[in-house]
Amino acid sequence: MTRLRGAIHKIEADATAKVVLVASSGPGVFCAGADLKERRHMSSSHVKEYANSLRSTFSYFEALSIPTIAVIEGAALGGGLELALSCDLRENATLGLPETGLA
């Protein structure tokens, strides 16, 4: 999240930026979301802090004054869905919130 927030800050400061494309570096999935195995070892306060950081970063991204496009070529799950929803969406995307069963 720190790297994403830093990238958003650079884009915001770049007057020549006209559009942001967010894409996966791997085929078949846009973003599978957080590593739930890692989350299992976090304290409840750390999970809350992490979730607040995610929300803040996605809100910051959504507020950019230039168009943001999620290049969704596969599944966008959990936090990946939240990132995609911060952008304009592409047709034929698979979106979901698999962690809802964790509540």
UniProtKB/TrEMBL annotation:
Highest taxon, organism lineage: Eukaryota
A single Gene Ontology CC term: mitochondrion
GO biological process, one term: fatty acid beta-oxidation
SUPFAM superfamilies cross-referenced by the UniProt entry: ClpP/crotonase
GO molecular function, one term: catalytic activity
PROSITE patterns the record matches: ENOYL_COA_HYDRATASE
Pfam families from the UniProt entry: ECH_1
Family annotation (InterPro entries): ClpP/crotonase-like_dom_sf, Enoyl-CoA_hyd/isom_CS, Enoyl-CoA_hydra/iso
Similarity comment: family membership: Belongs to the enoyl-CoA hydratase/isomerase family.
Protein name: Uncharacterized protein
Gene source species: Aegilops tauschii subsp. strangulata
